[in-house]
Amino acid sequence: MVKICCIGAGYVGGPTMAVIALKCPSVEVAVVDISVARITAWNSDVLPIYEPGLDEVVKQRRGKNLFFSTDVEKHVSEADIIFVSVNTPTKTRGLGAGKAADLTYWESAARMIADVSKSDKIVVEKSTVPVKTAEAIERILTHNSKGIKYQILSNPEFLAEGTAIEDLFNPDRVLIGGRETTEGQEAIKALKAVYAHWVPEERIICTNLWSAELSKLAANAFLAQRISSVNAMSALCEATGADVSQVSHAVGKDTRIGPKFLNASVGFGGSCFQKDILNLVYICECNGLTEVANYWKQVIKVNDYQKNRFVNRIVSSMFNTVSGKKIAVLGFAFKKDTGDTRETPAIDVCNGLLGDNARLNIYDPEVTEDQIKRDLSMKKFDWDHPFHLQPMSPTSTKQVNVVWDAYEAAKDAHGLCIITEWDEFKKLDYKKIFDSMQKPAFVFDGRNIVNAEKLREIGFIVYSIGKPLDPWLKDMPAVA
Questions:
Q1: CA of 281: how far to CAs of 23, 263, 339, in Å?
Q2: Is 161 within any annotated ligand binding site?
Q3: HSE (CB half, 13 Å, CA atoms) of 289?
Q4: Residue 13, SS3?
Q5: Structural domain includes residue 210
Q6: Does 38 count as an annotated binding residue?
C-alpha cells in the first residue's frame, strides 16, 4: 500500500488529501500538523475550515484510509510520498522584507524529514513557494541524507476557495515538475499514478521543476491582473457615466479574453494573489528585471487604490465624516462560500473607516467574532504565520460590534457596506433595512450584487462600483 503524508492541515493540505483518499481507496493518507487544536477539529464534527462539499468527503474516508494526526515524525517516517503544505509568509524583516517569501517553516520541515526518514522519499512542494525553492530543499535533504535518496517534485495547487472540492474533483490541469534525470522522471511517474485514479491523462502536465514553480506564480499574477484591470476601468466608468458591468460583458464576449475574473469589486483578497505577486516582484528584482518588477507592482497598487477609493466614497458621501456614525458591514470573508479572511478587502475598508472614528456593526455568516477582531488588530503579513504564532486578538474593540445577522447590523446605521458577495445579501428585505436605518440611508455596494434602481426607489442613496453615479455623489471626489 502506498503511504502518503501531508505536513500541514490547512486550506490546501486538508481538502487535497481528503480528495486523494476518496479517489484512491488503496492509498493510505495521513495529514499531520503540530497544532493540536487544528487536528482535533479535523477529527471532529466541526471541521476547522468551511468549504462546500468538504465535510462529506472527510466523513466518507476518515478512519478508513484518511487520518489526521499530531504524530508528525511517525507518519513522515512511514510515508513513501510526503506533501509539504506549510506556511510561506512574506518576510517582514531582513533581506527582501515586504516582498520575499519567508521559508523558515519549509526549511524546518525539510530538516525534520531528513532527521526521521529511514527509507527513500518523494518530497512534493504543495504550498506556493518562490522559484528555486526545490533546489534549496534538495540541498538540505542531500546534505543530511544518511544514504537515503530524495526526489523533489513541485505540484502547485490551483484551487479557488469556495469551489475547492469541485476544483479537485475536476481540475483544469494537474501540474507536476521534477528533475530531468531518470530518478526524477520515476518520481513524476509515481505521483502521476496517484492523480491518474481520477484525472484524465491529458490534463496531467509534466514539466521541469522551475517551470512548475513559476507557473503557479504566473497564474495567480495573471488572475490578479485581470481584477486590477477591470477595477481600473471601474474608476473611469464612474468618471464618464459608463457602466462597468456593460463594459465587462462586451469585453468578455471576445473569445481571446473571456468573461471570467472581469467583475469589478472593492478589490481582490485571499492568501495567494498579493503574496505571489510580491514574490514575483522580488524574483524579478533579484534578476535585474526592474521594468518587469514595476509592471507587476502596479497590479497591487491598483488593488490598494480601489480599496482606498471605496472608503473615500463612503466618507465623502456622508458629509465628509463618519466620526461617531454607525456603519453596517455585510461580509468579512474575502469571497463568498469560504470563511477565509486572509488579505480580505474588508480589513482595509474597516480600518479605513475606524481611522475616521466610525462605529462598525459587522456581520458575516462564516467568520467568527474572534477572527474579525484578530484580523483588525494584526499587522500586515502576520496572518500567514501558523495560528499559534499569530498575535492574540484584543479582548474588546469598542468601535467594533460583531452581530448575528444583516438586519441587526443595519439597525440605526447611517450607511451599509457590502464587502462579500454572499448570496443571502441579494435576498435581504431592503425595505425593512431602510426603515431601521438613520436617514439619509446609504448603501455602498462593493460587489455590485444589489439592484441599485430598486434600492433608490425605496429611498436609499446608492453607490455601486463602476456604475453611473447617484445624483447625490455626482460632485464628490472619488479620491481624497
A1: 38, 25, 29
A2: yes
A3: 11
A4: helix
A5: no
A6: yes
Is 273 annotated to bind ligand?
yes
Domain check: are 108 and 233 in the same one?
Answer: no
Dist CA 156 CA 126 (whole Å): 5
Element (H, E) at 295: helix 290-317
> Please, which pLDDT band fits residue 127 given cuts at 50, 70 and 90?
confident
Tens of pLDDT along 129-164? 666 677 778 888 888 778 899 999 999 989 888 899
Cell (9 digits) for 236: 473611469
Q: Are 49 and 341 spatial neighbours (Cβ–Cβ below 8 Å)? A: no
Query: Would the annotation count 258 as a binding residue?
Result: no
Return the percent helix, strand and coil in the chain, to nearest 5: 45, 15, 40
Final residue in a domain of this structure, among 199, 229, 259: 199
For 402-421, write each residue's pLDDT tens digit: 999 999 999 999 999 999 99
Instruction: Please count the structural domains in the chain.
Output: 2
Cα(426)–Cα(372) distance, integer angstroms: 22
- 57 labeled part of a ligand binding site: no
Q: Is 272 a catalytic residue?
A: yes
Element (H, E) at 288: none
In a domain? residue 208: no
Q: Give residue 162's domain range.
A: 3-199
- Out of 20-24, 393-397, 471-475, which region has the weakest mean confidence (pLDDT)? 393-397
Kindly report, residue by residue over 357-374, the tens digit of the pLDDT: 999 999 999 999 999 999
> 9 a known binding residue?
yes
Q: Is residue 468 reached through a cis peptide bond, with omega within 30 degrees of 0 on the bond before it? A: no
For residue 51, what is its C-alpha cell?
468549504
Q: Examine the domain organization and report whether 170 and 241 are in the same domain.
A: no
CA pair distance 393, 402, nearest whole angstrom: 14
In 3-state terms, what secondary structure has residue 446?
coil
CATH number for the domain including 106?
Answer: 3.40.50.720
Same domain, 137 and 227: no
Q: Which cell is 9 given?
A: 492541515
Average pLDDT for the chain: 91
**Placement of cell 535518496 in the chain:** 149
* Domain contains 205: no
Instruction: List the one residue out of 397, 396, 401, 377 whose CA is nearest residue 326.
Output: 401
Alpha-carbon gap, residue 247 to 253, rounded angstroms: 10
Which cell is 331 given? 461580509
Q: Which of 237, 272, 350, 417 is catalytic?
A: 272
- Across the beta sheet with 442-445, the strand order is 400-402, 359-363, 326-330, 415-418, 442-445, 461-464
